[in-house]
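Researcher: Please translate sequence to structure tokens.
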Amino acid sequence: MTERYENYESQVEPRVVEESIIVMGEAVKQAPKITGVPTGVEGLDELFFTVEVKDGKPVKKSLGGIPTYAVFNVTGVSDTGKSLFVEQFAVAQAARGEKVAFVTVESPAVFVAKGLEMRAAAMGHESAKIEKNIVLIDAASHGSLRENMADLLTTLAYVIKQHKVRFVVIDSITGLYENKEVAARAIVRRLFNFMKKWYQTALFVSQKRSGHEELTAEAAGGYAVSHIVDGCFVFAKELVDSQYKSKMYGKQLGDIVRLFRIDGCRLSGHDTRTYIMEITETGLVKILSPIGGR
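Model: Translation complete:
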């Protein structure tokens, strides 16, 4: 691969790519305004902020949600609440009258639809409104969408244009590079660039290998996968198996503690602490207090 690239370089006359050059002032004029998108997840929206300068001093101002046009990686080991989280987000957008494209890679669309229906009921939203605003793309049942990125992006572009979609969920991107992790970064970069081109706010679910550290942003495909996107939501769970953990988490021995952390965000400021997270009996994710109450 390296040799082929070097041969290509030696055969092509270098040129100045003038269309790539833009003065910052012009770029700022063209950039869309960044606002907050309410997520529907209790305790999350207030963790994002912007900074304004007043009287020569920086002042934080709550964004009221995740930044528009951001692409987030939602990563964690199994059974940490990732799919519940993105379903909750999709339902919240649909309830606001927004159109959402939900790409189902792991489970067929009909089963994902039932999960979305349950999430809507738990959140107190009428299913009729949710049903008309979420468009499912069933990559789980159609192998060409999983194996052929051009097919997936063309289908997604069609859905975005036809339904005026502004939000995209993919559960999960890991399923798009199974058994070919060497291509993971290239696949994620194509998806990321696609979302930017179409001005989408997007969540990509990404699985961790069991050997990964629980609270890192690493996912299958390596660290660089998470570094391509605008930020990461890291989900983890831990067994309370010592008195130290019992005291730190305020839980009984033998309990399972769920944890949540925002690992970077390019488009706004964010809280960097690790939070206790809860999955309610109705299947809703809640962000509670930071560890230690700091």
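Researcher: Any highlights?
Model: Residues 103 and 170 are 5 Å apart (CA to CA).
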